[in-house]
């Protein structure tokens, strides 16, 4: 990764106390993350999250309020060896699936993405979830106020 800071837009989709996550597989097994990804030049954050949701979960989303912003500076975290130069700012929005939409594996999933999954919020602490802080922040539902989370994993 270059020395540039990458901006990423993520969707937090919660329905009936369940959250929509992207399922990935690596050499250590399954892990999960939010739908969303890198913002392209000339694209707003809202446009980025809409495009990424179509690519990864095959559905249009309605974007609500901003929930969290986090820095991820790779050299400070568990993946420092392979991610040392990474610096990403993630902007996470409260989103809803468009009326009648069913999430599926999208048309352009991430390279390590193997599917999607819905989990009860109370199950988040038992998952290999990134960022890990979401397990603490969302177990009891969506917060009333958004927050800057800092450089957390």
Brief overview, please?
The chain is α/β, with parallel strands linked by helices. It has helices at residues 45-57, 80-83, 133-138, and strands spanning 6-15, 18-26, 29-33, 36-38, 61-73, 87-97, 113-120, 129-130, 147-151. Strands 1, 2, 3, 4, 5, 6, 7, 8 and 9 form a nine-stranded mixed sheet that branches.
Rg of Cα set: 15 Å
Rounded average pLDDT: 92
Write down the domain tally: 1
Number of helices: 3
Residue fraction in strands: 35-45%
Task: Give an overview in words.
It is built from three helices and nine strands, in the order E-E-E-E-H-E-H-E-E-E-H-E. It is of the alpha/beta class and 153 residues long. It has a single domain (6-151), classed as Nucleoside Triphosphate Pyrophosphohydrolase (Alpha-Beta Complex), CATH 3.90.79. Strands 1, 2, 3, 4, 5, 6, 7, 8 and 9 form a nine-stranded mixed β-sheet that branches. The relative contact order is 0.27. The model has no long low-confidence stretch (mean pLDDT 92).
Which tags fit this structure?
globular; 153 residues; Nucleoside Triphosphate Pyrophosphohydrolase; 9 strands; alpha/beta; nine-stranded mixed sheet; 3 helices
